[in-house]
Specification:
This protein is of the alpha+beta class and 464 residues long. It has 16 helices and 11 strands.
């Protein structure tokens, strides 16, 4: 069969499938088509200062994972495998063995010029090492304050402030931006201790400050700004190589710049912007992203967004500029994850849950209690990183059916059906397999691609 015939057959198949599934949906609505159902299908979620969300994303009062706020406590980052806990959990002898394997593998692969691990790949992967986008809790504070300019600080309604902030942060490079108000519940999503061991404390003070033991947040700083930075699908399709790792490094570098610029912007308005002092510091990124309405938790035990799937890194900062908070969303993502299991099946060390339902029972001390989730085995994951690729791994992100550039209307259409008709979830998972959307790509081919800026597609399919 020629390539041309393949394309024709695929197009015909999509047309037939569209007609068939539209008929199924119409029948379903006809049988169950009360006013509430029709409103659900017509729902469009708008966020102030944002492009319109897809029609199938709706705001809800509670996220699509269950949370026991009474049981949930502030978590110490040092307990995570990333935060230094890995060495403690596996033991010093095993940790040294894995380190030696990682170093030897890197040397051997460079000598043998292995694609994805060659010298040019490693030079590319370390391109951001030691650059000056330094994270800071208090920010540079180098922008002139209103007082220094001889004027009063900026004042507007929370709605106006939120619109302004989103416009500014999108200009700085953020993908999506959401707001969480700090209360007795959401405060528990702020770490008790940062990755560097300093305690994070809320106090009745006018200005934030830090010393060698703690970082202090004023109780008047009541709003958490949560934002995403897109990663390159083309890079992560080369997981688990250095090329794939580079898009992670780049997104963290960009996230740090956005934080610094936003902190300075807030300083120039007369307000405080308190950011991540260390990599992944301040609070639990996926949880705060979910509460800010940026996405849903998933089988990855990470957040998946309607716009970019899991192809994002999540960042956060705190401010005393009064903002308008967002609500969590329900886009059918967690329900789809219960059926799909594609990421868990593709995980080389089998670190992801294969269970049908999320659970309250954590996998280990690196996970926080108090919410249902598909908890992962972080030790299996980290051990694989060191024993095999010597890099981080993004296979689970890359194979996810939500990891699409959405240039084709069919992808957005399918996501809408998944959201509203969950009985079709298995069908769309099989369709994703049939079209080989989760297949990984050639490493060597990446070097010859003509990619857009940062290797990402910033266009979105927006429903009228």
């Amino acid at each position: 069969m020629t390539e041309q015939n393949k394309k024709i057959n695929r197009r015909d198949f999509i047309k037939q499938m569209t007609g068939g599934l539209t008929g199924v949906a119409a029948g379903f609505i006809g049988l169950n088509g009360d006013a509430k159902t029709r409103r659900l299908l017509a729902n469009t979620t708008k966020m102030i200062g944002k492009n319109k969300r897809p029609w199938w994303v709706k705001e809800v009062d509670e996220p699509t994972i269950e949370i026991d706020w009474d049981r949930l406590q502030r978590f110490n980052f040092s307990k995570t495998a990333q935060g230094g806990g890995f060495e403690k959990y596996v033991g010093e002898t095993e940790y040294r063995r894995l380190q030696l394997i990682e170093e030897n593998n890197e040397y051997q692969r460079i000598q043998e010029n292995i694609p994805g691990y060659s010298l040019r790949d490693h030079a590319f992967g370390s391109a951001h090492s030691g650059l000056s986008n330094k994270r800071s809790f208090l920010g540079a504070q180098s922008a002139p304050t209103p007082e220094e300019r001889g004027t009063e600080k900026w004042v507007g309604t929370p709605k106006e402030a939120t619109r302004m902030l989103r416009s500014v942060m999108r200009h700085f490079g953020a993908g999506t931006v959401g707001i969480v108000e700090i209360n007795e519940k959401t405060k528990k999503l702020i770490y008790s201790h940062d990755p560097d061991g300093r305690a994070i404390i809320f106090e009745d003070v006018e200005k934030a400050y830090e010393d060698s033991e703690k970082r202090v947040i004023p109780n008047t700083a009541k709003w958490i700004i949560v934002y995403t930075v897109q990663m390159s699908l083309e890079a992560l399709k080369r997981s688990p190589t250095v090329i794939a790792q580079q898009t992670t490094n780049l997104s963290y570098n960009r996230g740090s710049y956005i934080q610094s610029a936003t902190q300075n912007f807030l300083h120039g308005l007369g307000y405080q912007g308190l950011g991540e002092a260390t990599l992944n510091g301040l609070g639990i990124s996926p949880a705060l992203g979910v509460m800010a309405g940026l996405g849903e938790m998933s089988r990855l035990n990470r957040m998946i967004t309607p716009e970019y799937g899991p192809m994002v890194r999540v960042f956060k900062m705190i401010t005393d500029l009064p903002l308008q908070p967002d609500k969590p969303i329900d886009a059918g993502i967690m329900d789809f994850c219960k059926t799909c299991k594609k990421c868990a099946e593709a995980c080389p060390p089998a670190a992801l849950s294969i269970e049908d339902e999320p659970t309250w029972e954590v996998e280990g001390p690196w996970s926080n209690f108090g919410h249902k989730a598909f908890f992962e085995d972080s030790i299996k994951c980290r051990t694989y990183w060191k024993e095999k690729p010597g890099t981080n791994c993004g296979i689970c992100f890359a194979v996810c059916p939500y990891s699409k550039d959405n240039k084709v209307w069919m992808h957005s259409w399918a996501q809408g059906f998944v959201s509203k008709f969950p009985f079709l979830n298995k069908y769309f998972r099989n369709l994703d397999d049939a079209f080989s959307y989760g297949a990984m790509k050639s490493v060597e081919e990446w070097w010859d691609l003509d990619l857009p800026e940062y290797g990402i597609n910033t266009e979105r399919v927006v429903e009228d």
